[in-house]
From TrEMBL:
Protein's organism: Trema orientale (Charcoal tree)
Family assignment from sequence similarity: Belongs to the major facilitator superfamily. Proton-dependent oligopeptide transporter (POT/PTR) (TC 2.A.17) family.
InterPro entries from the UniProt entry: MFS_trans_sf, POT_fam
GO CC term, one of those recorded: membrane
Signal peptide limits: 1-20
Record's keyword terms, sorted: Membrane, Signal, Transmembrane, Transmembrane helix
Bilayer topology annotation: Multi-pass membrane protein
Compartments where located: Membrane
Protein name per Swiss-Prot or TrEMBL: Proton-dependent oligopeptide transporter family
PANTHER family registered for this protein in UniProt: OLIGOPEPTIDE TRANSPORTER-RELATED
Keyword Transmembrane helix: yes
GO molecular function, one term: transmembrane transporter activity
Main subcellular location of this protein, as a coarse class: membrane
Amino acid sequence: MVVALVVFLLGTTTYRYSIGQNEKSPFVRIGRVFVAAFRNWRSTPSSIATIEETRGFLSDQSSEQFRFLNKALLAPSTHLKGDDCVCIADVEEAKSVLRLVPMWVICLTYGVVFAQSSTFFTKQGATMDRTIVSGYEISPASLQCFIYLTIIIFLPIYDRIFVPITRAFTRSPSGITMLQRIGVGFVFHAFAMVVAALVEVKRLKTAQEYDLVDAPSVTIPISVWWLLPQYFLFGIADVFALVGMQEFFYDQVPTELRSIGVALYYCVFGVGNFLSSFLVSVIEKATGGEGRESWFSNNLNRAHLDYFYWLLFGLSSVGLAAYLHFASSYVYKRRGTT
Protein backbone atom coordinates (compact mmCIF):
# COMPACT_ATOMS: atom_id res chain seq x y z
CA MET A 1 0.00 0.00 0.00
CA VAL A 2 2.88 2.36 0.75
CA VAL A 3 4.48 1.64 -2.63
CA ALA A 4 1.13 2.15 -4.37
CA LEU A 5 0.65 5.47 -2.56
CA VAL A 6 4.12 6.68 -3.60
CA VAL A 7 3.47 5.75 -7.24
CA PHE A 8 0.09 7.48 -7.11
CA LEU A 9 1.57 10.69 -5.68
CA LEU A 10 4.31 10.68 -8.32
CA GLY A 11 1.68 10.36 -11.01
CA THR A 12 -0.39 13.30 -9.76
CA THR A 13 2.41 15.75 -10.66
CA THR A 14 2.24 14.86 -14.35
CA TYR A 15 -1.46 14.07 -14.77
CA ARG A 16 -3.25 16.18 -17.37
CA TYR A 17 -6.81 17.13 -16.54
CA SER A 18 -9.31 17.52 -19.35
CA ILE A 19 -10.26 21.11 -20.13
CA GLY A 20 -13.75 21.99 -18.98
CA GLN A 21 -16.26 23.22 -21.54
CA ASN A 22 -18.12 25.52 -19.18
CA GLU A 23 -21.14 23.25 -19.31
CA LYS A 24 -23.59 23.11 -16.48
CA SER A 25 -23.52 20.14 -14.15
CA PRO A 26 -25.63 17.20 -15.39
CA PHE A 27 -27.47 17.30 -12.06
CA VAL A 28 -28.42 20.90 -12.79
CA ARG A 29 -29.57 20.08 -16.32
CA ILE A 30 -31.65 17.08 -15.22
CA GLY A 31 -33.10 18.95 -12.26
CA ARG A 32 -34.02 21.84 -14.55
CA VAL A 33 -36.02 19.46 -16.77
CA PHE A 34 -38.09 18.15 -13.85
CA VAL A 35 -38.69 21.66 -12.50
CA ALA A 36 -39.77 22.99 -15.90
CA ALA A 37 -42.04 19.96 -16.49
CA PHE A 38 -43.65 20.49 -13.07
CA ARG A 39 -44.27 24.16 -13.79
CA ASN A 40 -46.01 23.25 -17.03
CA TRP A 41 -48.00 20.29 -15.67
CA ARG A 42 -51.27 21.93 -16.73
CA SER A 43 -50.21 22.08 -20.38
CA THR A 44 -52.57 20.46 -22.87
CA PRO A 45 -51.54 17.53 -25.10
CA SER A 46 -52.01 19.72 -28.18
CA SER A 47 -49.50 22.27 -26.92
CA ILE A 48 -46.99 19.49 -26.20
CA ALA A 49 -47.47 18.09 -29.72
CA THR A 50 -46.94 21.55 -31.18
CA ILE A 51 -43.71 22.20 -29.30
CA GLU A 52 -42.44 18.70 -30.17
CA GLU A 53 -43.01 19.44 -33.83
CA THR A 54 -41.48 22.90 -33.77
CA ARG A 55 -38.45 21.78 -31.75
CA GLY A 56 -37.84 18.82 -34.06
CA PHE A 57 -38.55 16.13 -31.47
CA LEU A 58 -38.08 12.65 -32.89
CA SER A 59 -41.24 10.55 -33.08
CA ASP A 60 -40.00 7.29 -31.60
CA GLN A 61 -40.53 5.06 -28.60
CA SER A 62 -38.07 7.07 -26.53
CA SER A 63 -40.07 10.24 -27.06
CA GLU A 64 -43.34 8.55 -26.15
CA GLN A 65 -41.95 7.17 -22.89
CA PHE A 66 -42.20 9.57 -19.92
CA ARG A 67 -43.80 12.04 -22.29
CA PHE A 68 -44.75 14.29 -19.39
CA LEU A 69 -41.12 15.42 -19.32
CA ASN A 70 -41.60 16.88 -22.80
CA LYS A 71 -43.55 19.63 -21.04
CA ALA A 72 -40.19 21.03 -19.98
CA LEU A 73 -39.75 22.23 -23.57
CA LEU A 74 -42.69 24.61 -23.03
CA ALA A 75 -40.73 26.75 -20.58
CA PRO A 76 -41.28 30.38 -21.67
CA SER A 77 -38.14 31.70 -23.34
CA THR A 78 -38.74 35.12 -21.77
CA HIS A 79 -38.00 33.67 -18.33
CA LEU A 80 -34.84 31.87 -19.38
CA LYS A 81 -31.52 33.18 -20.54
CA GLY A 82 -29.24 31.57 -23.12
CA ASP A 83 -27.92 28.29 -21.78
CA ASP A 84 -30.76 28.10 -19.23
CA CYS A 85 -33.19 27.00 -21.94
CA VAL A 86 -34.26 23.38 -21.78
CA CYS A 87 -33.32 21.53 -24.95
CA ILE A 88 -34.24 18.14 -26.36
CA ALA A 89 -30.92 16.65 -25.25
CA ASP A 90 -31.65 17.68 -21.65
CA VAL A 91 -35.07 16.00 -21.77
CA GLU A 92 -33.58 12.80 -23.19
CA GLU A 93 -30.93 12.89 -20.48
CA ALA A 94 -33.59 13.15 -17.77
CA LYS A 95 -35.56 10.31 -19.34
CA SER A 96 -32.52 8.05 -19.43
CA VAL A 97 -32.02 8.57 -15.68
CA LEU A 98 -35.72 8.09 -14.86
CA ARG A 99 -35.82 4.84 -16.85
CA LEU A 100 -33.16 3.38 -14.57
CA VAL A 101 -35.15 3.87 -11.35
CA PRO A 102 -37.58 0.90 -11.66
CA MET A 103 -34.77 -1.33 -12.94
CA TRP A 104 -32.58 -0.48 -9.95
CA VAL A 105 -35.41 -1.06 -7.46
CA ILE A 106 -36.17 -4.49 -8.95
CA CYS A 107 -32.48 -5.45 -8.91
CA LEU A 108 -32.58 -5.02 -5.11
CA THR A 109 -34.32 -8.42 -4.94
CA TYR A 110 -31.16 -9.88 -6.44
CA GLY A 111 -29.13 -8.14 -3.74
CA VAL A 112 -31.34 -9.61 -1.00
CA VAL A 113 -30.81 -13.16 -2.25
CA PHE A 114 -27.11 -12.49 -2.87
CA ALA A 115 -26.65 -11.71 0.85
CA GLN A 116 -27.45 -15.30 1.85
CA SER A 117 -24.23 -16.76 0.44
CA SER A 118 -22.15 -15.12 3.18
CA THR A 119 -24.66 -15.56 6.01
CA PHE A 120 -27.05 -18.51 6.22
CA PHE A 121 -25.15 -20.67 3.72
CA THR A 122 -22.13 -20.40 6.02
CA LYS A 123 -24.24 -21.14 9.09
CA GLN A 124 -25.58 -24.28 7.41
CA GLY A 125 -22.06 -25.43 6.54
CA ALA A 126 -20.92 -25.03 10.15
CA THR A 127 -23.33 -27.79 11.23
CA MET A 128 -22.32 -30.29 8.54
CA ASP A 129 -19.43 -32.73 8.10
CA ARG A 130 -16.64 -30.65 6.56
CA THR A 131 -13.92 -33.31 6.59
CA ILE A 132 -11.80 -33.35 3.42
CA VAL A 133 -9.10 -35.77 4.58
CA SER A 134 -8.55 -37.38 7.96
CA GLY A 135 -7.73 -34.68 10.50
CA TYR A 136 -8.53 -31.71 8.25
CA GLU A 137 -11.83 -29.81 7.95
CA ILE A 138 -12.66 -27.05 5.51
CA SER A 139 -13.80 -23.76 7.05
CA PRO A 140 -17.52 -23.13 6.40
CA ALA A 141 -16.82 -19.52 5.36
CA SER A 142 -14.30 -20.67 2.75
CA LEU A 143 -17.10 -22.41 0.84
CA GLN A 144 -17.80 -19.02 -0.75
CA CYS A 145 -14.69 -19.51 -2.85
CA PHE A 146 -16.69 -21.97 -4.96
CA ILE A 147 -18.82 -19.06 -6.19
CA TYR A 148 -15.75 -17.32 -7.53
CA LEU A 149 -14.23 -20.54 -8.87
CA THR A 150 -17.45 -21.05 -10.81
CA ILE A 151 -17.20 -17.52 -12.17
CA ILE A 152 -13.57 -18.09 -13.25
CA ILE A 153 -14.49 -21.36 -14.96
CA PHE A 154 -17.75 -20.23 -16.54
CA LEU A 155 -16.67 -16.81 -17.88
CA PRO A 156 -14.48 -18.29 -20.66
CA ILE A 157 -17.31 -20.70 -21.49
CA TYR A 158 -19.71 -17.77 -21.69
CA ASP A 159 -17.33 -15.73 -23.85
CA ARG A 160 -16.09 -18.48 -26.18
CA ILE A 161 -19.10 -20.78 -26.47
CA PHE A 162 -22.32 -19.13 -25.28
CA VAL A 163 -21.85 -15.76 -27.03
CA PRO A 164 -20.93 -17.20 -30.48
CA ILE A 165 -23.88 -19.61 -30.36
CA THR A 166 -26.41 -16.94 -29.36
CA ARG A 167 -24.84 -14.48 -31.82
CA ALA A 168 -25.76 -16.85 -34.66
CA PHE A 169 -29.44 -16.53 -33.68
CA THR A 170 -29.68 -12.92 -32.49
CA ARG A 171 -27.17 -11.31 -34.91
CA SER A 172 -26.05 -9.20 -31.99
CA PRO A 173 -22.28 -8.79 -31.35
CA SER A 174 -22.81 -9.46 -27.64
CA GLY A 175 -25.02 -12.49 -28.23
CA ILE A 176 -27.72 -11.31 -25.86
CA THR A 177 -28.56 -7.82 -24.64
CA MET A 178 -27.59 -6.44 -21.24
CA LEU A 179 -31.16 -6.77 -19.96
CA GLN A 180 -31.43 -10.35 -21.20
CA ARG A 181 -28.18 -11.18 -19.44
CA ILE A 182 -29.48 -9.79 -16.15
CA GLY A 183 -32.75 -11.68 -16.58
CA VAL A 184 -30.93 -15.00 -17.01
CA GLY A 185 -29.06 -14.24 -13.77
CA PHE A 186 -32.41 -13.73 -12.02
CA VAL A 187 -33.56 -17.16 -13.19
CA PHE A 188 -30.44 -18.92 -11.87
CA HIS A 189 -30.73 -17.07 -8.54
CA ALA A 190 -34.33 -18.21 -8.12
CA PHE A 191 -33.36 -21.79 -9.00
CA ALA A 192 -30.53 -21.61 -6.44
CA MET A 193 -33.08 -20.84 -3.72
CA VAL A 194 -35.08 -23.94 -4.67
CA VAL A 195 -31.95 -26.09 -4.41
CA ALA A 196 -30.97 -24.44 -1.10
CA ALA A 197 -34.41 -25.15 0.36
CA LEU A 198 -34.30 -28.82 -0.68
CA VAL A 199 -30.79 -29.28 0.73
CA GLU A 200 -31.88 -27.71 4.02
CA VAL A 201 -34.83 -30.11 4.19
CA LYS A 202 -32.41 -33.02 3.80
CA ARG A 203 -30.11 -31.58 6.48
CA LEU A 204 -33.01 -31.29 8.94
CA LYS A 205 -34.20 -34.82 8.19
CA THR A 206 -30.67 -36.16 8.76
CA ALA A 207 -30.57 -34.39 12.14
CA GLN A 208 -33.88 -36.03 13.07
CA GLU A 209 -32.77 -39.47 11.91
CA TYR A 210 -29.66 -39.37 14.11
CA ASP A 211 -31.54 -37.78 17.03
CA LEU A 212 -29.42 -34.61 16.90
CA VAL A 213 -32.21 -32.05 16.87
CA ASP A 214 -31.40 -30.92 20.40
CA ALA A 215 -27.63 -31.25 19.99
CA PRO A 216 -26.70 -28.15 17.96
CA SER A 217 -23.01 -28.44 18.80
CA VAL A 218 -22.74 -31.95 17.32
CA THR A 219 -21.80 -32.26 13.65
CA ILE A 220 -24.62 -33.69 11.56
CA PRO A 221 -23.44 -36.71 9.50
CA ILE A 222 -24.18 -35.12 6.14
CA SER A 223 -21.39 -33.92 3.86
CA VAL A 224 -20.93 -30.18 3.40
CA TRP A 225 -20.55 -30.88 -0.33
CA TRP A 226 -24.34 -31.00 -0.50
CA LEU A 227 -24.13 -27.19 -0.43
CA LEU A 228 -21.98 -27.00 -3.57
CA PRO A 229 -24.89 -26.92 -6.09
CA GLN A 230 -26.33 -23.74 -4.58
CA TYR A 231 -22.89 -22.09 -4.57
CA PHE A 232 -22.41 -23.25 -8.15
CA LEU A 233 -25.75 -21.77 -9.22
CA PHE A 234 -24.88 -18.50 -7.46
CA GLY A 235 -21.65 -18.37 -9.48
CA ILE A 236 -23.45 -18.88 -12.80
CA ALA A 237 -26.06 -16.28 -11.82
CA ASP A 238 -23.28 -13.80 -11.05
CA VAL A 239 -21.64 -14.38 -14.45
CA PHE A 240 -24.85 -13.20 -16.06
CA ALA A 241 -26.38 -10.72 -13.62
CA LEU A 242 -23.38 -9.07 -11.94
CA VAL A 243 -21.53 -8.37 -15.18
CA GLY A 244 -24.81 -7.43 -16.87
CA MET A 245 -25.82 -4.98 -14.14
CA GLN A 246 -22.41 -3.33 -14.05
CA GLU A 247 -22.43 -2.87 -17.81
CA PHE A 248 -26.07 -1.75 -17.86
CA PHE A 249 -25.90 0.95 -15.20
CA TYR A 250 -22.56 2.24 -16.50
CA ASP A 251 -23.73 2.36 -20.11
CA GLN A 252 -27.25 3.73 -19.66
CA VAL A 253 -26.58 6.77 -17.48
CA PRO A 254 -25.53 10.03 -19.16
CA THR A 255 -21.82 10.06 -19.95
CA GLU A 256 -21.01 12.60 -17.25
CA LEU A 257 -22.83 10.53 -14.62
CA ARG A 258 -21.07 7.21 -15.20
CA SER A 259 -19.57 7.30 -11.72
CA ILE A 260 -23.17 7.42 -10.47
CA GLY A 261 -23.93 4.42 -12.68
CA VAL A 262 -21.17 2.42 -11.00
CA ALA A 263 -22.49 3.56 -7.62
CA LEU A 264 -25.99 2.33 -8.53
CA TYR A 265 -24.51 -1.09 -9.30
CA TYR A 266 -22.73 -1.35 -5.94
CA CYS A 267 -25.76 0.00 -4.09
CA VAL A 268 -27.78 -2.97 -5.30
CA PHE A 269 -25.72 -5.18 -2.97
CA GLY A 270 -25.28 -2.67 -0.16
CA VAL A 271 -28.99 -1.88 0.06
CA GLY A 272 -29.78 -5.55 -0.60
CA ASN A 273 -27.85 -6.53 2.52
CA PHE A 274 -29.77 -3.99 4.59
CA LEU A 275 -33.09 -5.24 3.21
CA SER A 276 -32.06 -8.83 3.94
CA SER A 277 -31.30 -7.91 7.55
CA PHE A 278 -34.61 -6.08 7.84
CA LEU A 279 -36.48 -9.08 6.40
CA VAL A 280 -34.75 -11.44 8.84
CA SER A 281 -35.64 -9.15 11.78
CA VAL A 282 -39.30 -8.99 10.77
CA ILE A 283 -39.55 -12.77 10.32
CA GLU A 284 -37.72 -13.34 13.62
CA LYS A 285 -40.32 -11.28 15.49
CA ALA A 286 -43.23 -12.78 13.59
CA THR A 287 -42.27 -16.44 14.03
CA GLY A 288 -40.52 -16.38 17.43
CA GLY A 289 -41.58 -15.55 20.98
CA GLU A 290 -43.90 -17.22 23.49
CA GLY A 291 -41.83 -20.38 23.66
CA ARG A 292 -41.78 -20.88 19.90
CA GLU A 293 -38.67 -21.46 17.83
CA SER A 294 -38.34 -18.88 15.08
CA TRP A 295 -37.19 -19.63 11.55
CA PHE A 296 -33.75 -18.44 12.64
CA SER A 297 -33.38 -20.19 15.97
CA ASN A 298 -29.86 -20.33 17.40
CA ASN A 299 -30.33 -24.09 17.27
CA LEU A 300 -30.35 -24.43 13.50
CA ASN A 301 -31.74 -27.95 13.80
CA ARG A 302 -34.98 -26.47 15.12
CA ALA A 303 -34.97 -23.52 12.77
CA HIS A 304 -36.63 -23.38 9.37
CA LEU A 305 -34.19 -21.93 6.89
CA ASP A 306 -36.00 -23.98 4.28
CA TYR A 307 -39.09 -21.81 4.79
CA PHE A 308 -36.94 -18.70 4.42
CA TYR A 309 -35.39 -20.02 1.20
CA TRP A 310 -38.83 -20.75 -0.21
CA LEU A 311 -39.84 -17.20 0.71
CA LEU A 312 -36.78 -15.87 -1.11
CA PHE A 313 -37.70 -18.02 -4.10
CA GLY A 314 -41.12 -16.36 -4.11
CA LEU A 315 -39.50 -12.93 -3.79
CA SER A 316 -37.14 -13.75 -6.67
CA SER A 317 -40.06 -14.93 -8.80
CA VAL A 318 -42.00 -11.73 -8.16
CA GLY A 319 -38.87 -9.70 -8.87
CA LEU A 320 -38.30 -11.62 -12.10
CA ALA A 321 -41.88 -11.02 -13.23
CA ALA A 322 -41.58 -7.30 -12.49
CA TYR A 323 -38.21 -7.22 -14.20
CA LEU A 324 -39.58 -8.82 -17.36
CA HIS A 325 -42.44 -6.30 -17.38
CA PHE A 326 -40.19 -3.24 -17.18
CA ALA A 327 -37.41 -4.71 -19.32
CA SER A 328 -39.84 -5.42 -22.17
CA SER A 329 -40.68 -1.71 -22.43
CA TYR A 330 -37.21 -0.37 -21.63
CA VAL A 331 -35.76 1.95 -24.27
CA TYR A 332 -31.98 1.95 -24.47
CA LYS A 333 -30.21 5.30 -24.44
CA ARG A 334 -29.59 6.54 -27.96
CA ARG A 335 -25.96 6.55 -28.98
CA GLY A 336 -24.50 9.97 -29.41
CA THR A 337 -26.55 11.54 -26.61
CA THR A 338 -25.13 12.50 -23.27
